[in-house]
Design goal:
6-stranded parallel sheet, 11 helices, 6 strands
Length: 242
Amino acid sequence: MYTKEIDNYLRKFGFKKFTPKAVLFDMDGVLYDSMPNHAYSWHNSMASFGIEMSEADAYAHEGMRGVETIKKIVKEQRGIEISDEESQRMYDEKSRIFATRPQAEIMDGVIDLQRKIKSYGMKIVVVTGSGQHSLLEKLTHDFSGLIEPGMIVSSFDVTRGKPHPMPYLKGMEKAGVEPWEAIVVENAPLGVRAAVAARIFTVAVNTGPLPNEMLADEGANLIFDRMTDFDKVFPNLIGSQK
């Protein structure tokens, strides 16, 4: 199963083999059903600064570092460059609103999937554009025994966020693997673009309102509608390489 998709991946990048040893997960919309909270927070915080950002815009920009997202949108709408300090001040307001939202649930199927990954002796890395300390601390608590503090890449670890490949390159560095030894699980177009730019086999799980075509256009190798669907077939993806 998935021989065609794997062959296409190997051919595209000129790799001779696909031997997964690590799975790199995005966080929001992949590990947690948190994107509705983020979309609400982005829309309302930016409105307080006179910036238009619809909830759909939040999904489209998902994966970028918060300060980069703000600087990009301000440039588009006002035609000006704002400082990192000003952007951070605006992002702090977004974080404040986010903290008032209901707690996001862990995505159905992801715990079972990560247990399978561990049972195969594979490593798990989280690669997120988030810079919210509370969320990063929550990861190791909610995924105890699955996610280790030293295996998280956040906005504090990189100078360029998604869609630049740097976050996923850093994730592979933490895991000690090469591109053909990794799988990325993403839900956002910009995240898929970053993973493909890092030359990693990329699985998109479309947990948001954007059409599958946006994920396919960015180069996702496989697309699923639910994490539970990917969880069911993960052994087949790995088993084909044993």
